[in-house]
Design goal:
Layout: H1 5-19, H2 25-45, H3 61-65, H4 73-88, H5 103-106, H6 110-122, H7 140-156, H8 167-176, E1 189-192, H9 199-206, E2 213-218, H10 221-233, E3 243-245, E4 264-269, H11 308-317, E5 319-330, H12 339-349, E6 353-358, E7 371-377, E8 386-391, E9 397-399, E10 402-404, H13 407-419, E11 427-431, H14 432-437, H15 459-464, E12 467-468, H16 469-473, H17 476-481, H18 485-489, E13 490-492, E14 498-501, H19 518-524, H20 526-551, H21 559-573, H22 582-607, E15 614-616, E16 621-623, H23 629-636, H24 638-665, H25 684-696, H26 725-763, H27 766-808, H28 812-832
Parallel strand pairs: 1-2, 1-4, 2-3, 4-5, 6-8
Antiparallel strand pairs: 5-7, 6-7, 8-11, 9-10, 12-14, 13-14, 15-16
Helix pairs in contact: 1-2, 1-6, 1-7, 2-7, 2-10, 8-9, 8-13, 13-22, 19-27, 20-21, 20-27, 21-22, 22-27, 24-26, 25-26
């Protein structure tokens, strides 16, 4: 079966648990990812002629499994597995960075043996079989690395920002530099001078759907090794030799035949922010900067302790005459003065900056400062008269202790940037003339005011009452969709410029509109109903078209292409609807894709429409990944389901009744004290024993009474009715026995339903499976999200109107009158009590 990302993550997390404690998170990820790499290439390429990666005989993952439990396991992994693979594929210095025979990190003796044995065993799971899985642009190792970074970066206490670019930011950069399948071929070159794990390069490659040439340089040895492994896992094995290790600024390793910097079609980078040691290797004896590659000529030399512009100028010099690129840098590069101001001025005057995208703060590991993407375009530099700016700082979601761009944030940034769409408080085309007037300061707030307008209190309304018309008109986007609703809700005040909420007045539609019924009025208004129907029609049209497409899914289909068409289609469908945000709808679809639909379609692309109803040992129940049983039950066995639900409801009522009875008798003189266990639970066996003891007592012996008065329980008599302890215990026993009968009936009903399900799953036709999965599972879930979004829109309108009504409902004169009336009442009471 196809591997699911959720299972991959679970296995990696389990692997990390085996190594936790012995080393830092930034170190043990290297061990886990090396084993993942060997498992992957063994499943994919072992014994395959002309494979891009050679798996030598005796060096596969199976051979690694054979080492489990051996005293020499660590040394054997190093020499018999990793060294052989590295030697056969020119990967020395890549996959042999992590030492599997290091007692300081892995323990010594039996401790090391047990730890490595358990680690290997985790990857033996049948669910981690990569033999049928192709990366297809899906970042398996990159996602695994991202998963590790997101879970452990904060634990190690070391900065990870310089090694890893969040996948969401990588996608934005890949999409705004202008690369696409129409303009690329095998000769197209992409360069990242600080490539980290190469995830940014691979995201650019994903945008082309073609084999292009990737080049990267990374200073950190272990991270460069990870980048080369990442290339292999993404069918870029031929590019592993173009990932080089070294200091890009001091010793750039991509040079032409004249020892000048090699130039590329595209470049992307996420260099270390404000790197203080950037000039190492470039400083002459007199302390000046000596750069043989002329990167700073005509621009200026960056400050000694800040290398942000050094990396940007390196990218500019490394681009061809029509080259395009993007670089992530801290916001300081947009406005800092002195040497950086001069460099910024020279870059702007050459027309190289196409655009600037301001990102939210706290996106990157290792730093919380906000950053921006500077988009470079040399091709159209001579004619550039403006810089396109986007303030995307407010579009994100909290993800643990970091922020993260949502799917909708990514798509909106890309749409707006690539189409140069000006949106108030979000994006703007800024003329270079205006930038020049601001002394070439590019600080985004100078050009885009993204602040939200203050909700100003109206003093006159507080003094004299009424809702300011300005507050009502501020809701114009709603009135554009519901033009007569405003008249249903408001009426003019006696004072000009103010209105009152209709309260107790019968409207022409005979709907009474007191403040408490605002929601009812909105939700029942004909224009609201009509708009809701319009939204439903748009969704149903999209659903009808795509149900057919989804039902035709087959083995070999590419999930990435499917979701691209689905998501772009739903964006287009909701584009012309006012009020509802098409990007919100897009977000719902993408979230459902990530949580459910992606795994489903990967299963179909590998195994077809298979619905094996099998027993899950972990969950201890029968399950089916593609078609969970609740959908089959809801379609075919609703009567059986309702029968079980009714029995469960009866059982819960009995349990509640027993709990109430026992709780009421608890206290100092607990009637049930002798029938409770040490944990305070009443058991049937103890209850029966106590009843027998009481029944053996002589008939004329005084009956022991409970110390506290008792109350009646639904037909159960108490002391006040002359009943005794024996009667109450028997009543509780009767309830316990009734509950046991119900539990038995529930179990029998569930077993009967399970047998029906087993038969039904075997009898399901492919047509039935497709309809259940596409209609009942996928489309119903997406449709419910669209409806919930519609509800939220209307609830925001309701809440705002209530807020305004409550804010101004009691003006100052009315408050004074109320105070005077209360004062009169108090004085009258005081006089009655004899006080003057």
């Amino acid at each position: 079966m196809a591997i699911k990302k959720s299972e991959l993550y679970s296995s990696i997390w389990q692997s990390c648990d085996e190594l936790r404690g012995g080393m830092d998170a930034s170190q043990y990820k290297d061990y886990v990812l090396v084993i993942l790499f060997i498992k992957y290439i063994s499943d994919k390429y072992a014994g395959v002629p002309y494979a891009p990666i050679t798996v030598p005989k005796g060096a596969s993952f199976k051979d690694m499994v054979a080492l489990k439990g051996k005293p020499t396991i660590g040394d054997d992994i190093n020499k018999k597995i990793i060294a052989k693979i590295a030697g056969a594929n020119k990967l020395t210095g890549t996959i042999d960075v992590a030492n599997f025979n290091d007692p300081e990190k892995l323990g010594s003796g039996k401790d090391m043996v047990d730890k490595l044995t358990k680690l290997i065993a985790i990857f033996e799971s049948p669910s981690l079989d990569f033999s049928k899985n192709r990366a297809e642009g899906d970042d398996l190792l990159g996602d695994a690395y991202e998963f590790l970074m997101k879970n452990f970066a904060t634990q190690s206490g070391k900065s990870k920002g310089q090694f890893y670019t969040p996948a969401e930011v990588s996608r934005v950069m890949a999409k705004v530099i202008g690369i696409n399948p129409k303009i690329t071929n095998a000769q197209t070159t992409v360069y990242d001078p600080t490539c980290g794990s190469a995830s940014l390069l691979l995201k650019v490659s994903d945008e082309t759907d073609k084999n292009i040439s990737l080049f990267g340089q990374e200073m950190d040895v272990a991270t460069a090794a990870l980048a080369r492994m990442n290339m292999v896992l993404h069918n870029h094995a031929s590019d592993i030799q173009t990932i080089k290790q070294g200091n890009t600024l001091a010793t750039p390793l991509f040079l032409d035949e004249h020892n000048r910097l090699k130039t590329f079609d595209f470049a992307v980078a996420n260099p270390p922010f404000s790197y203080k040691s950037w000039s190492n290797g470039l400083t002459a004896q007199d302390g000046s900067i000596s750069d043989p590659y002329k990167r700073f000529d005509g621009y200026g030399i960056p400050p000694n302790k800040n290398g942000d512009f050094a990396f940007l100028l390196h990218i500019i010099r490394s681009l061809k005459s029509k080259g395009k690129g993007a670089c992530i840098l801290p916001h300081g590069v947009l406005f800092r003065g002195n040497a950086e101001a001069e460099i910024r001025k020279n870059i702007i005057q050459r027309g190289y900056i196409k655009g600037i995208i301001g990102l939210p703060a706290n996106l990157f590991f290792g730093t919380g400062i906000p950053a921006c993407i500077i988009v470079i375009d040399k091709e159209n530099a001579d004619n550039r008269k403006a810089v396109f700016m986007i303030d995307a700082s407010k579009g994100f979601i909290k993800d643990g202790n970091k922020n993260r761009l949502r799917y909708q944030d990514i798509h909106k940034i890309v749409d707006v940037f690539n189409n140069k769409i000006e949106i108030l408080k979000y994006s703007r085309i800024v003329p270079v003339v205006e930038i020049e007037k601001n002394e070439f300061n590019l600080n985004i707030p100078r050009y885009i005011d993204s602040s939200e307008p203050e909700d100003i209190q109206d003093i006159e309304a507080h003094l004299k009452g009424g809702i300011p018309n300005s507050n009502i008109e501020a809701l114009q986007n709603y009135w554009n969709v519901y033009p007569t609703l405003k008249q249903e809700l408001f009426e003019p005040s006696v004072r000009s410029g103010y209105s009152n909420l209709k309260n107790g007045t019968v409207t022409p539609s005979e709907v009474e509109v007191p403040k408490r019924n605002i929601k009812e009025v909105i939700f029942s208004h004909p224009e609201f109903i009509s708009y809701r129907e319009q939204v439903d029609n748009v969704f149903n049209t999209w659903k009808k078209k795509n149900k057919t497409i989804l039902k035709n899914l087959a083995i070999g289909d590419k999930p990435k292409l499917i979701i691209r068409n689905l998501s772009e289609g739903i964006l287009k469908s909701f584009t012309d609807l006012r009020l509802i945000d098409k990007y919100d709808i897009y977000q719902h679809l993408m979230e459902y894709w990530a949580s459910v639909m992606q795994d489903d379609i990967y299963l179909i692309s590998i195994d077809g429409w298979k619905t094996d109803f099998i027993y899950d040992e972990k969950k201890k129940e029968y399950e089916c990944d593609l078609l969970p049983k609740q959908y089959v039950i809801n379609r075919y066995f609703i009567i059986e389901k309702e029968e079980i639900e009714n029995l469960e409801s009866e059982r819960e009522a009995l349990a509640s009744q027993m709990e109430e009875m026992i709780e009421e008798q608890s206290g100092e003189d607990d009637l049930f004290a002798e029938v409770k266990t040490d944990k305070g639970k009443v058991t049937k066996a103890r209850l029966q024993k106590r009843i027998k003891e009481l029944e053996k007592e002589e008939l004329n012996e005084p009956i022991r009474k409970a110390a506290e008065p008792k109350v009646a329980y639904k037909g159960i008599a108490t002391e006040e009715d002359g009943k005794d302890e024996l009667s109450i215990l028997k009543s509780l026993l009767e309830l316990i026995e009734k509950e046991a009968v119900l539990k038995r009936k529930i179990k029998e009903a569930e077993e009967k339903l399970l047998e029906l399900l087993k038969k039904k799953y075997k009898a399901l036709t492919e047509t039935e499976i497709k309809d259940l999965v596409v209609t009942d599972k996928w489309m119903t879930a997406i449709g419910n999200d669209v409806k919930s979004d519609m509800d939220r829109i209307s609830q925001r309108l309701t809440q705002r109107i209530k807020e305004l009504a409550e804010r101004y409902q009691t003006p100052l004169p009315k408050l004074k009158n109320e105070v005077e009336e209360l004062e009169k009442k108090v004085n009258a009471h005081i006089q009655k009590m004899g006080f003057k």
